[in-house]
Fold Synaptotagmin-like protein 2.
Amino acid sequence: ESDTASEISFQFNKHKKTPSIGSHSSDMASVSSVSGSVLSVYSGDFGSVDAQGTVEFALDYDEKNREFQIHVSQCKDLAVVDEKKGRSDPYVKTYLLPDKARMGKRKTSVKKRTVNPVYNEVLRYKIEKMVLLIQKLNLSVWHNDPLGRNSFLGEIEIDLASWDWSNRKLNWYPLKPRSLSAVNGVDHRGVMNLSIKYVPPGSLGKVCPKNPPSGEVHIWVKDVKDLLQLRPSGVDSFVKCYVLPDTSKKSYQKTRVIKRDTNPVFNHTIVYDGFHTEDLKDACVELTVWDHEKLTNHFLGGIRLGLGTGLSYGISVDWMDSTQEEVAFWQEMMSAANEWIEGLLPLRSL
């Protein structure tokens, strides 16, 4: 049924309410940023502060080096995140939209304990001018938290097609609340065809005394349809899998790369053991599709299978955000032990 069967052990009891549980969301953020921005423009936003203040920056395009340059000068009167200490630790982050996954993010250094940070840094994108002119610049300001629980402080979005490129001066712009179109916008990234199955503890026959009885989750990634075509030749795609809250190498699995195909067939099965029935309400299977290139991999879309409660072992986490379709798929698996549950799920930004 599949070209590859990968089996790994997953010990959930290590992740229950312990002092270190809060680090799981930051682990996810670090994995994501290193591998090409799994998370969306608003990833990791734990804050509820209102956007305020201004940001000063200038835009330029270096024709000789074919480079888009954003000179981030400073911010003024930013919102205070930690009211008890009266502090914010702000930094500026940029994306080119809608191609944020391919171009990746850029960000400044973090300035600590200030609502009036001075950066004087240049963020650079190597990009052809004609491609740049069909993009929008999203520039946002964030409070940096040591545990990765970053807070959104405001943003500005600029349509680069209508930008006055003779204007190279530093100008002040008011920071605005996040745009509803960016938060709620639905963009078609493709559809994943997969099956999942839960095998409860003790249903596989006798268990070795050295290994306590535990259940298994089987994930059969069959194929993906209508992926984003990043190059004329198509896309070289593969699928990554984690079972959150574990983002360690033990949890990480991936398929082979299917080249030059926007409708890749993977036929890859992954088996995670170490599951107890009660773990199913706190775990989340994250499947993400990537375009493979030599220097970096580009995020194409993903799904998260879980109950979507926002909680994992009693801790608030941003990755427990399954859609209604994803939740229904997971619930059906939980209620039909030892049966393959098949589904077609749309890929989305995570």
